[in-house]
Amino acid sequence: MQEQIIKNIHIVLVATTHPGNIGASARAMKTMGIEHLALVAPRIYPDAEVTARAAGADDILMSSTVHESLSDAVINSNLVLATSARERSINWPVLSPQQAAAKIIGAARQGAKVALVFGRENSGLSNEELELCNAMIRIPANPHYSSLNLASAVQILCYELRKALLNEDEEKQQSGETVALANNEQMNMLYEHLQAFTTEIGFFDPEKPRLLMRRLKRLFNRAQLDVNEYNILRGILAAAQARTSKHEDQESVRE
Question: Which site from 56, 197, 210, 254 is most exposed, i.e. has the minimal number of CB atoms within 10 Å?
Answer without folding.
Answer: 254
